[in-house]
Amino acid sequence: MRHYGFRPSAQVVGLSSMAVLASLIASSAAEQKIGAPPEAMNMRLVGYNDLQGRSAYQPTIHHQGDRYIAYIGHHGGTPVAPKPLNPLTGQPESNGTSIVDVTDPGHPRYLAHIPGTPGNYEEGGAQMTRVCDGRVLPKGDPTKTYLLRVFGGKSHQIYDVTDPAKPALIWQREGELNDTHKSFWECDSGIAFLVSGVPGWRVNRMSEIYDMSDPAHPVKIRDFGLPGQQPGASGPIPEQLHGIDFVGSAGQPDLLRLRHQQKRGHADRRSRQAHPRSQGADARESALSGSGTPGDDAV
């Protein structure tokens, strides 16, 4: 047995301390009870909204005019409550997207709910949200604000949320997908990296790259995936895509991190970085692969 320079007495003390700590943690966990007062460290609860009893997944808080608006994506319903009641409409609705005014954090106001696809848990809902102002998008209406969201695992949609209490659908991807998840929309270029399950691919989640600089008229640039995921490939199938994040910084090249999912269902934390675009959307090329032709499935 190697001691790495530690004296036995020090090891005994260390192990004893760990045993005491483990005992305290176990004791603390055993004492937690439903209904007990909440605990917090370096933070405090200032406001609350029950979101009509819908589970929250991905929230995006956007500074919109003189207000702060939260766009909250939901998973699907549950067997007990597959379609919670929307008091604003008086109708039961499949979980989708909640829009909440959080300008006053102590008194958030629920403004609207956009229904998602029917289904429980990950089979339904509209779990992902991204928001861009038209004044930032190259071809957007400078007076408008836009919401990009998934429509369950079936499609992607863009809403005009200039009036967040009255969201209006302006675009939906044609055709049904096998799945969707955490997409990324770069507002200053308009390029969107959509996590999609395009039929024919060997995985349920890869990436579609769109020019969404004009949110009312998105144009698909190409598909992208790891070698072995594309149609017609053979051999082992790489992990499917989980989500896409922007990891660039001022003065650095634009980089994306593509987080892939391991077979056991957890996110693979190995970064897959690449330049998200070449000279811009008008070039219709992607530096993610050597060819970069529209609709090119090569990697």
Question: What does this molecule look like?
Answer:
It is a single chain. Helices cover 8% and strands 31% of the residues. It has one helix at residues 8-31; strands spanning 56-64, 67-75, 85-86, 91-92, 97-101, 109-114, 125-126, 129-133, 145-151, 155-160, 168-172, 184-185, 191-196, 206-211, 219-224, 241-246, 256-261, 267-268, 273-274. The chain has one domain (51-283): 6 Propeller (Neuraminidase), CATH 2.120.10. The model is unreliable at 1-21 and 264-299 (pLDDT under 50). It contains one helix and 19 strands.
What would you say about this model in short?
With 299 residues, the chain is mainly β. It is 8% helix and 31% strand.
Topology:
Blueprint: H1 8-31, E1 56-64, E2 67-75, E3 85-86, E4 91-92, E5 97-101, E6 109-114, E7 125-126, E8 129-133, E9 145-151, E10 155-160, E11 168-172, E12 184-185, E13 191-196, E14 206-211, E15 219-224, E16 241-246, E17 256-261, E18 267-268, E19 273-274
Antiparallel strand pairs: 1-2, 2-5, 2-7, 3-4, 5-6, 8-9, 9-10, 10-11, 12-13, 13-14, 14-15, 16-17, 17-18, 17-19
- Total number of helices: 1
Instruction: Give the class-level CATH name.
Output: Mainly Beta
Amino-to-carboxy terminus distance: 49 Å
CATH architecture: 6 Propeller
From the spread of the alpha carbons, the general shape counts as globular
Keywords summarizing the entry:
8% helix; mainly beta; single chain; 299 residues; 1 helix; Neuraminidase; 5-stranded antiparallel sheet
